[in-house]
From TrEMBL, chain A:
GO biological process terms held by the UniProt record: transmembrane transport
The name this protein goes by in its record: ABC transporter permease
Keywords of the record: Cell membrane, Membrane, Transmembrane, Transmembrane helix, Transport
The keyword Transport is assigned to this record: yes
Family matches, as Gene3D superfamilies: MetI-like
GO cellular component: plasma membrane
Automatic annotation (TrEMBL), chain B:
Similarity section: Belongs to the binding-protein-dependent transport system permease family. CysTW subfamily.
Membrane-protein topology: Multi-pass membrane protein
Record InterPro entries: MetI-like, MetI-like_sf
Annotated Gene Ontology cellular component terms: plasma membrane
Protein name according to UniProt: ABC transporter permease
CDD domains assigned: TM_PBP2 (cd06261)
The keyword Coiled coil is assigned to this record: no
Keywords: Cell membrane, Membrane, Transmembrane, Transmembrane helix, Transport
From TrEMBL, chain C:
One biological process term in Gene Ontology: quaternary ammonium group transport
Family: Belongs to the ABC transporter superfamily.
Source organism per UniProt: Hansschlegelia quercus
InterPro entries according to UniProt: AAA+_ATPase, ABC_SmlMolc_Importer, ABC_transporter-like_ATP-bd, ABC_transporter-like_CS, Mo/tungstate-bd_C_term_dom, P-loop_NTPase, Transp-assoc_OB_typ2
Name of this chain's protein: ABC transporter ATP-binding protein
Listed GO CC annotations: ATP-binding cassette (ABC) transporter complex
Amino acid sequence: MNQSVRRSNAFIWTWTIFVLVLVYLPIACGALAGLSKSRYFGFPVAAWSTDWWSRAIDSFEVQQIVKTSVAIALIVTVVAVIVAFFGALAFARYDWKGRRLYQKLVLLPIFFPQPVLGLALLLWMNAVGIQPTWQTAIFAHLVWIVPVVTLVIAIQVYGFDPTLEEAAADLGAGRLFVLREITLPILWPGVWSGALFAFLLSWGNFPLSLYTTGADSTVPEWLYAKMVAGYTPMVPAIGTMSTLAAATLLLTGGLILALLRWRAGKVAA
Amino acid sequence: MSELTLPHAEERPTGTRLEARSTPAARKKVSRGLLSSLPVLVVLLLGFLAPLATVAAYAFATPRTFDVFRSFTLINFETIFDPANTVWMSFAWSLGFAAATVVVLAIVAYPIAWGLARVFGRWAGFVSVLFVFPLFVSENVRLYGWTLFFIKNGVLDGTLKLLGGAGPEVLYTPGITLFGMVYVYLPFMLFPMVLGLAMVPKELVEAARDLGASRLMIWREVELPLAMPGIMIGMLLTFVLAVGAVAESKILGGQSVIVATHDIEIAFTYAQNWPLGSALALILTIIVGALSLIALTKLDLDRILGRR
Amino acid sequence: MTAAALAQNPPKPILQLVGVRKTFGDFAAVERIDLDIRDGEFLTIVGPSGSGKTTLLRMLAGMEAPSDGEISLKGIRINDMPPSQRPTCLVFQSLALFPHKTVGENIEFPLKVKGVAPAARKQRALELLRLVRLPETHYGKNVMKCSGGERQRVALARALAYDPEVLFFDEPLSALDYKLRKVMEKELKDLHRESGKTFIYITHSLEEAMVMSDRIGVMQSGRLVQVGTPEEIYTRPSTKFVSEFMGEVNVFDAAHENGVWRIDGVEGPANLALPTAMTSAQKAAVVVRPEFMRFVDAPGGADNCLKGVVFNQYSLGSRIQYQVRVAEKTFLLELSRANARKAEGDEALIGWDARDAIVVEA
């Protein structure tokens, strides 16, 4: 490796680390604010306290919004993964007439500003007479999350050799048997990543929830309401908790994914 | 050698039964893709196309009413394009912010994308996860963190005071709004860029070097053109998302400027003028949709995603 | 079975193709094929890439439906029978081994489909491992960690576990190196004899076809141009294409003028002696294999003699190949090292005997 390459690599590493620090800086600031004793944030933190954390955990209101958020995210995950699994097969596995058009259609909701989509959904629900509640928010989340999960699974499907399905059918297996024994197990890591994405994106979504939950509230929505009016250090405390929950889930999910890959590569001898 | 029996002798259909099931076989094969795509298409139809159609319908309704489909008027658009009105200002700000976000992000993300594709090696996966993770934290939480950083007596101000200075007054300005957009949309520029750069075969770069090309020349003649599809997706995605962004100007910008989506929201909520809001949303949708459609028709997604 | 016995009492066809066609839009990949495949034979379809051999095989295996014509198995029309219901099995070019299953699980797959109990499945899998000459310890091995040759054997064992009437092979040996391919060709032939099943093999290598097959079918742009035993294909190719597909040959056009045969590109009468009386024809293509050509000392040393200049020689190992220019045409000679007595630039008289020349349609 010559010197100029080494120098440019050093620059790239430094720049990446600098940007990463910036990416996590506000999250760290939130954590600090949630752990300071005073009601109004000041730096350096004069006195530390976990008071706001325990207050947040004990709050009935907070428990309610967490329940709503989890319920939405769980249902979104299940529905999105099932719909997107078949959607990904249509995207990357089957060669069919409308595929090119379909691929572009799937991308459209991703290439669309979410606040505007949320408002459009609100308008539409109103026009057909549906009262927005946390259930309608599930649907709103799906509009954006199904395409994302479809892409995530599709990337795995691209690596799937379709002759494996043909071979299984040739050896006498029926459609369901092929799906259960061949297609699903091989695509499992993609499906799992898709599920992880679905849950976490729903958990952290703000712009779609804002207009489509009606009187109900998710965690990001509730936090926003309190940021605008009624700040207490409970806001950053809950924000931090929410972040930590997402991180824990990502870590666990990632470990399971690694395990799946490891098992796929090293079938018990 | 012919005492073998057919393995499926009992299930084997007779000639006549075969005829009955033969005709749909060819048709079924064609439509298996369509069949699998149906659930997604239903979601898109009900959750994307139908709402946009409703927006379009409302845009032509009488202002300050809810009688959609019963009246047709262009008065909402006249209001918007009336020079005496300042509604167009919010669109100008949004388009300007979006363009600036794209330019800044292209510069910020390119070295990182290059690192992920070429330099980081076995660390690339970990670094990617670090950049993906913030997507799972609601943007208002992250933006609020910046408020805590920049606010009076906040992290920056507090630190500078310890050193005998004072923090700059950056909160509640258009500049900080742009900063927030760059911050929020970084992953949307970064990952398509990585996909694009990963499409450039290493051997091509080596071949160009072998043929005596300088690094700048390799970049301009080989790497950039081949990575362009991915870079284009990243630029388009960030532009489109930034045009509709609203949280940045509300939380960081303190409404020092009103962006397009904010105007739409005001029309829908405080003003209770859904037709006007819809007309604004329709214009935004047309801008976004035209850009997306032009770019998407040019892309071969199989090649970008599947490396085929 | 000897060729004579086959001719006297040909076995019943197990697969019968009548006027089978396959078109993709305007393009005809397979053009009206009639073929009887005999029970228990090893039939190889050879052809260059794009000749339609893979499409033909996929129709036989049930993965494509013919656009026209009829395919019947033991007298029953199977045109639209899905592959899962055909008593046939395809060994794919990629082998299509299930990467998430062990060697044993791969072999047991068709048995699992049929609902065979695990213990019986394992017993059968171990038998098959022995049959394809793999150690029983491979039963639990990750199939992705097997070598190329081992994978071939696993794919074979899996196909045999299905107990098909007919096995199809889509160039499964093409990914192997030369030496291993030679070993596998012979093993496949042994396995064919031991199993007694019908094998239908496609390849672009006629050499591979020669080693293994009872009969060979040669395909050219969607058509089956010749079907015959390896001997027949080698000694009596029916067209110029078939003879050229066999390897490097001398092919030249000959014209009949004023009662004498002339070779195009060669001045003067060539005194072309032909094995069959071709007096009525005006034009013919003549094929002479390089190994049937030789250097002669004087005119008359062979039925046909031509004067030329040696301009290249190549070593083929035990043999030497010469390129000899006669006027504008190049002739190939293949000689054992003992007979290789010319050097580049030498004038040479080359010749061949009439009985070694094959006349095909021009």
